[in-house]
């Protein structure tokens, strides 16, 4: 529960506290003083941050769920509450809340990375403090099933190109079931193409890491480092390898993409990657996510987020009309809740086991998974009349979206609902085109092109294969210094059955060619007949009277003389028939 500042009103009043969101916008939340307030994990600044230091008011058990952390109120003196302002004192209060004795030799400022793990500090199987070992086995599949899945993934990663080229559907099914924790460090870079990018650019990350970087970006990154998962054992100490590795990774990205620079939402994404793999692999995975899966998300204009917000509203109108009408009624725009979800890939919103399952599916199936998860969250929070009864305004609606019961967010149950949402890649592409046309009517200079975004891991794999074919890697296949003779091997003789089949095909081809030749000849004859000049027109003899006259043969004999044979008949000869009309 957040403290009551000096000079505040009574217990019945409410307090407005401005919280720093991961993408840089400042939001105002109204927290009831008498209830157990919850603060998003990492949103409050502690120690040397620029925001107000929120002091713990009382002791109690740590509440962690759906990405929210709060402290239950308990008995504590005012002197104690006023002294909890530094990181070391926060560690003492945290240990006291867990019911552990105070130890001056270990604190949150000097974690297990420097002084060794304290015997009383308990973490869950993901490395977060404050969870007992009894909770690690809840909701977990049997050990035999985990080992079986690990063996299948290990076999698939050994022949990854064959799996992606021929068995991508099988890869997608296995990703939906969940990648084993021991295999994520190997599978995530292969799915997103980070491993291929790292192999192409050998030694590039070292150069970026050693470059000085922009002082402006370095100052901003340094202010945000301590906000990334402050209750994870990897990021407890400013001098630990977690915060230092995250600082170097984000600085390397600003050098690699100076036109984009640094976006605060990249911090939690890079932190989740660093929890599972070395810094170089995490860097190239971040590059692939920023350029292949979510291009334009972390750019200064953030036009892609604006477009996807409109696409989300259009899909919500079809999937859950009741929630859509409620959000439209109270003028709750998509950027008020979708921005944090999409930019941080739900790493600040949902329980960490569910986040990992979402990432498994997202790296396999692409951005449509983000839309499906968001639609399920809105349906769980605002999909029924009972849930809408208490939502009378913008603040209550946003609080409802942030306070979904943890039992509904359990990874297996939640992901089953996500996979059942009827949203495909074609639906997302169609809505992108429709909403892009509308946005360009309002903003003619809207320059984002959704065609740059690849839909899934198969598309990323195909794009990289095409790039390798067009531009072979340097040094991988060096040209030989001498000519290698070409060996020509004659094909084996055909079997009788194959020979007969080949003969039938040749005969069919000959018949087809003969028919085509005949067809061409007939067409040529028709064309020549059309071009032939018309003949002499016969006279019209209908209704006419014919007069036929024949000269006698005797006259012909007298004219021709004796001893002469009669020649061919002439016009005036006797055999000629004269016709008069």
UniProtKB/TrEMBL annotation:
<dbReference type="GO" id="GO:0070373">
    <property type="term" value="P:negative regulation of ERK1 and ERK2 cascade"/>
</dbReference>
<protein>
    <submittedName>
        <fullName>TBC1 domain family member 10C</fullName>
    </submittedName>
</protein>
<dbReference type="GO" id="GO:0031527">
    <property type="term" value="C:filopodium membrane"/>
</dbReference>
<dbReference type="GO" id="GO:0070885">
    <property type="term" value="P:negative regulation of calcineurin-NFAT signaling cascade"/>
</dbReference>
<dbReference type="InterPro" id="IPR050302">
    <property type="entry name" value="Rab_GAP_TBC_domain"/>
</dbReference>
<feature type="domain" description="Rab-GAP TBC">
    <location>
        <begin position="178"/>
        <end position="366"/>
    </location>
</feature>
<feature type="region of interest" description="Disordered">
    <location>
        <begin position="1"/>
        <end position="20"/>
    </location>
</feature>
<feature type="compositionally biased region" description="Basic and acidic residues">
    <location>
        <begin position="505"/>
        <end position="528"/>
    </location>
</feature>
<dbReference type="GO" id="GO:0005829">
    <property type="term" value="C:cytosol"/>
</dbReference>
<dbReference type="Pfam" id="PF00566">
    <property type="entry name" value="RabGAP-TBC"/>
</dbReference>
<dbReference type="GO" id="GO:0042113">
    <property type="term" value="P:B cell activation"/>
</dbReference>
<dbReference type="InterPro" id="IPR035969">
    <property type="entry name" value="Rab-GAP_TBC_sf"/>
</dbReference>
<keyword id="KW-0343">GTPase activation</keyword>
<feature type="region of interest" description="Disordered">
    <location>
        <begin position="505"/>
        <end position="581"/>
    </location>
</feature>
<dbReference type="GO" id="GO:0033173">
    <property type="term" value="P:calcineurin-NFAT signaling cascade"/>
</dbReference>
<dbReference type="GO" id="GO:0005096">
    <property type="term" value="F:GTPase activator activity"/>
</dbReference>
<dbReference type="GO" id="GO:0050869">
    <property type="term" value="P:negative regulation of B cell activation"/>
</dbReference>
<dbReference type="GO" id="GO:0031267">
    <property type="term" value="F:small GTPase binding"/>
</dbReference>
<dbReference type="GO" id="GO:0070371">
    <property type="term" value="P:ERK1 and ERK2 cascade"/>
</dbReference>
<dbReference type="InterPro" id="IPR000195">
    <property type="entry name" value="Rab-GAP-TBC_dom"/>
</dbReference>
<dbReference type="GO" id="GO:0042147">
    <property type="term" value="P:retrograde transport, endosome to Golgi"/>
</dbReference>
């Amino acid at each position: 529960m957040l403290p009551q500042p000096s000079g505040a009103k009574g217990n019945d009043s409410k307090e407005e506290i401005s919280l720093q969101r991961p993408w840089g916008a400042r939001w105002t939340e109204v927290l009831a003083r008498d209830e157990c307030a919850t603060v998003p994990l990492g949103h409050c600044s502690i120690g040397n941050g620029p925001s107000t230091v929120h002091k713990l008011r009382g002791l109690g058990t740590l509440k962690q769920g759906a990405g929210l952390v709060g402290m239950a109120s308990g008995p504590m003196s005012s002197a104690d509450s006023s002294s909890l302002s530094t990181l070391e004192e926060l560690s003492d209060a945290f240990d006291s809340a867990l019911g552990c004795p105070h130890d001056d030799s270990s604190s949150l400022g000097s974690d297990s990375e420097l002084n060794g793990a304290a015997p009383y500090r308990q973490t869950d199987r993901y490395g977060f403090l404050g969870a007992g070992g009894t909770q690690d086995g809840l909701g977990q599949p049997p050990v035999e099933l985990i080992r079986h899945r690990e063996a299948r993934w290990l076999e698939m990663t050994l022949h990854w190109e064959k799996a992606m080229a021929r068995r991508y559907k099988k890869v997608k099914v296995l990703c939906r079931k969940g990648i084993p924790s021991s295999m994520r460090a190997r599978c995530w870079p292969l799915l997103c193409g980070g491993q291929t990018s790292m192999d192409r650019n050998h030694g590039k990350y070292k150069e970026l890491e050693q470059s000085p970087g922009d002082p402006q970006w370095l100052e901003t990154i340094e202010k945000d480092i301590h906000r990334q998962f402050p209750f994870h054992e990897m990021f407890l100490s400013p001098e630990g390898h977690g915060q230092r590795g995250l600082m170097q990774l984000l600085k390397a990205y600003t050098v690699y993409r100076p036109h984009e620079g640094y976006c605060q939402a990249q911090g939690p994404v890079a932190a989740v990657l660093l929890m599972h793999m070395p810094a170089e692999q995490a860097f190239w995975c971040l590059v692939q996510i920023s350029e292949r899966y979510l291009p334009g998300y972390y750019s200064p204009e953030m036009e892609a987020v604006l477009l996807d917000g409109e696409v989300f509203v259009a899909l919500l109108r079809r999937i859950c009309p009741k929630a859509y009408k409620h959000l439209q009624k109270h003028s709750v725009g998509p950027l008020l809740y979708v921005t944090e979800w999409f930019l941080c890939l739900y790493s600040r919103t949902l329980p960490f086991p569910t986040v990992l399952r979402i990432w498994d599916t997202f790296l396999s199936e692409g951005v449509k998974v983000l839309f499906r998860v968001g639609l399920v969250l809105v349906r769980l929070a605002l999909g029924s009349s009972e849930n809408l009864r208490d939502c009378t305004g913008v603040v209550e609606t946003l609080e409802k979206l942030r306070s979904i019961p943890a039992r509904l967010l359990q990874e297996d149950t939640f992901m089953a609902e996500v996979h059942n949402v009827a949203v495909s890649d074609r639906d997302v592409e169609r809505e992108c085109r429709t909403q892009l046309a509308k946005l360009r009517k309002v903003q003619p200079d809207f320059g984002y092109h959704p065609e740059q975004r690849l839909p899934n891991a198969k598309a990323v794999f195909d794009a990289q294969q095409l790039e390798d074919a067009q531009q072979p890697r340097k040094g991988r296949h060096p040209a030989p210094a001498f000519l290698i003779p070409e060996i020509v091997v004659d094909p084996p003789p055909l079997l009788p059955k194959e020979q007969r089949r080949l003969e039938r095909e040749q005969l069919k081809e000959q018949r087809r060619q003969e028919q085509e030749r005949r067809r061409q000849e007939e067409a040529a004859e028709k064309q020549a007949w059309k071009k032939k000049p018309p003949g002499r027109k016969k006279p019209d003899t209908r209704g006419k009277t014919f007069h036929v006259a024949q000269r006698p043969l005797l006259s012909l004999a007298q004219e021709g003389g004796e001893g002469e044979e009669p020649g061919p008949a002439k016009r005036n000869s006797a055999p000629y028939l004269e016709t008069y009309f």
